[in-house]
Design a protein that fits this description.
With 485 residues, this protein is α/β, with parallel strands linked by helices. The chain contains 15 helices and 24 strands. Strands 9-8-7-10-6-11-12-13-14-15-16 form an eleven-stranded mixed β-sheet, sandwiched between helices. Strands 17-18-22-19-20-21 form a six-stranded mixed β-sheet, sandwiched between helices. It starts with a helix and ends with a helix.
């Protein structure tokens, strides 16, 4: 594709210096990954500015640059107001604007994005629509699974995936949309047919200065230039207030407040929940969901609301919801063959930890043992809060490392202890996560429930900048074998 064609897709003031007919064979924003014929985007960042790496990119084969300031390098340069925004528009153009050729669904919110997206994909496929998925756990093209690094990938990866999905015959795509992606304009110029808001609570305050800034990033998604149709959880007061302030029509889902799609006659068990789902004056169906916890009723209602907007009928919605037996790392019951249960969950924020512990408490016949930590180089304010929540809800706590990253693990655990001490809950501190899990397995009694919170689907532990293999499903299996031997 010609450089001028890509430049023409970028809004705002754009100036080409040099040969505008330069042929572009690839796009890249990392100088180490440049291939011959690439257009290199000089993205300014918090710690590094890619303008400084432009010479390396050219040396590695880049034939043109996108910049915010002209560089003393003898290759064509496209000068733009905002390189981050330019990447998204140029990547979409480079791959033929694939999102416009499929029904595009975006899910945002603090919790529930992953589960809701898996449920939506299941429903759409039950309705006969081949569906792609882009999210935290993985991306999927039909049944093909592609590992994921970010909830919402960078624009070049996103557009590459969308192009592959279009080429594979996908009619629909469901994508998790993070606040970081919105703040960094990774989805600039992408128009979603349907956008959904699951809920809102504390998280990511290491990046966003306060809750208002975090919420404002989420709300940017629901402006008319990004989303055509809106589905939201009306029981979340902050979400409801935000969506109502837009003055746009939207489909409401909920349990307590007046809703368009709602559930009643809810029954919760350790292996799932059943409820009567109603779309006001349209249909009523009984659902037997294989995912436990009241929060998964909300996820199911949101998925149903999205698929109603997509024109899917009630039977396909019911079958699609009931077909999902588990979502990786989300209140996932491990097959351990033990007289106690072991549940894996990604809960890593105060609200998500509270939700999982309350859900497990409803069906626990013995003690509830909570094993958790907090990530390093992230929002430190939530650490004592999570300690207090666990202390109030669990019978016994094991404080351990999550992803300490570049922080001292014991310093993180000291902050969690600040919250748990005054609750009166018994606890131990074992910073080595593998040994902490061993302790939990060795001390669990029949009918107890061990909740391994924080890692979920992740298959690594990040310590001092190095990612070490750590898949808790494998770790639990190995430890049970060692204990048995």
């Amino acid at each position: 594709m010609k450089l001028k064609a890509l430049a023409g897709a970028i809004p705002g003031e754009v100036r080409i210096i040099g040969n505008e007919d330069t042929e572009i064979l690839a796009l890249c924003a990392d100088s180490r990954e440049v291939s011959p014929g690439a257009l290199f985007f000089c993205t300014p960042g918090l710690r590094m500015d890619a303008h400084d790496f432009a010479p390396q990119a050219v040396e590695n084969g880049a034939v043109a640059l996108v910049v915010e300031r002209v560089l003393p390098i003898d290759v064509p340069q496209v000068v733009v107001e905002d390189v981050r925004m330019a990447i998204s528009y140029a990547a979409s153009e480079f791959f033929g604007n694939p999102s416009r050729k499929m029904l595009l669904i975006g899910i945002t919110g603090t919790k529930g994005k992953t589960t809701s997206s898996f449920l939506i994909k299941s429903i759409l496929e039950e309705a006969g629509k081949k569906t792609g998925l882009i999210g935290t756990v993985c991306s999927m093209i039909g049944e093909e699974v592609i590992p994921a690094n970010l909830t919402t990938p960078d624009p070049i990866v996103t557009q590459t995936l969308l192009h592959r999905m279009e080429q594979a015959g996908c009619e629909c795509v469901v994508m998790e949309v993070s606040a970081h992606a919105l703040a960094m304009r990774r989805l600039a110029g992408v128009k979603f047919d349907i956008g959904a808001f699951t809920n809102f609570s504390q998280d990511h305050l290491d990046y966003f200065k306060d809750m208002d800034a975090y919420f404002a990033a989420k709300m940017r998604f629901f402006e008319p230039d990004m989303v055509e149709n809106i589905v939201y959880n009306v029981d979340d007061e902050r979400v409801a207030e935000g969506i109502r302030s837009l003055g746009r029509e939207a489909l409401r889902i909920g349990i307590r407040a007046s809703s368009d799609v709602y559930a009643n006659d809810i029954e919760i068990s350790e292996r799932g929940c059943s409820f009567l789902m109603t779309w006001h004056k349209q249909f009523r169906v009984s659902v037997s969901l294989k995912l436990a916890g009241i929060f998964n009723v909300y996820n199911a209602l949101l998925a149903a609301g999205v698929c109603i907007c997509a024109g899917v009928g009630p039977e396909a919605i019911r079958r699609g919801l009931e077909d999902v037996r588990a979502v990786p790392g989300r209140i996932e019951l491990l097959e351990t063959g033990t007289p106690y249960r072991v549940i894996l969950d990604y809960a890593h924020s105060p609200d998500s930890l509270e939700n999982i512990l309350k859900a497990v408490r409803q069906t626990a016949k013995g003690r509830m043992i909570a094993l958790f930590g907090c990530g390093g180089n992230r929002d430190a304010a939530k650490r004592p809060v999570m300690g207090e929540i666990a202390g109030e809800l669990a019978d016994f706590c094991i404080l351990t490392s999550d992803n300490p990253r570049n922080e001292d693990p014991m310093a993180i655990l000291d902050q969690i202890e600040e919250g748990i001490r005054h609750t009166g809950c018994e606890y131990v501190v074992i910073d080595n996560r593998r040994e902490a899990i061993r302790y939990a397995l060795q001390h669990a009694q029949p009918s107890d429930v061990i909740v391994l919170a924080g890692k979920g689907h992740e298959t690594y532990q990040e310590i001092n900048g190095v990612k070490y293999p750590f898949d808790e499903k494998i770790v639990v299996a190995e430890l049970l074998k060692e204990i048995a031997d």
